[in-house]
Design brief:
Blueprint: H1 6-29, H2 35-40, H3 44-49, E1 53-58, E2 73-74, H4 80-91, E3 110-115, E4 121-128, E5 133-138, E6 141-146, H5 151-161
Antiparallel strand pairs: 1-2, 1-3, 3-4, 4-5, 5-6
């Protein structure tokens, strides 16, 4: 026997099932909440897509005090393929080791300035190979994190910009 309120229980069951299904669809359809977007702005992908050129500089260590750098040395502009890989690495949450502070002094080894077609700066990336950390600045926003997951890629980026140089550079006096 179904009882006097069987139809109410049936409607409640259907309602709960529909609510759960709607919630699952919302969770699947909504864009991922990216830590990179929270740090650098929701429009970071659109900004980086406007990049037309990447200028590079390296900061050779001062022989007298290796944690200090000498005047910057300009490097080669990055190829479109390398630039595309760099943009992809910046946007991927998997490129970072989040919330892992390292006990080292951040030094500017390589600076990459991303420019639009009018040569207006879009973003600036500073690589520190002694810490394997990168600082990414977009406007007033800045992200400083560990780049261990993409260290190989960033070594290749630096090697393309500065052929014949060794990356990571030696910072220990010989």
């Amino acid at each position: 026997m179904l009882g006097p309120f069987w139809h109410l229980r049936w409607w409640m069951g259907v309602s709960v099932s529909l609510a759960l299904a709607a919630g699952a669809v919302y969770l699947i359809a909504r864009p991922p909440d990216s830590r990179v977007q929270r740090a650098l702005g929701r429009d970071i992908a659109a900004r980086l897509a406007r990049t037309a050129l990447a200028e590079t500089q390296r900061f050779p260590p001062d022989p007298a005090l290796p944690i200090l750098s000498l005047a910057p040395v300009p490097g080669k502009n990055l190829s479109p393929a390398t630039l595309a890989g760099l943009r992809e690495a910046i946007l991927s949450d998997a490129s970072y080791v989040w919330d892992d502070a390292k006990p080292c002094v951040f030094t500017d080894d390589v600076r990459i300035t991303l420019l639009d077609e009018r040569r207006n700066p879009i973003a600036q990336i500073v690589l520190c190979f002694s810490c394997n950390e990168w600082s990414i600045s977009v406007g007033e926003r800045q992200l400083l994190e560990d780049f261990d997951p993409v260290a190989g890629l960033l070594n290749q980026v630096a090697a393309e910009a500065f052929p014949g140089e060794r990356f990571p550079p030696d910072r220990v006096p010989r």
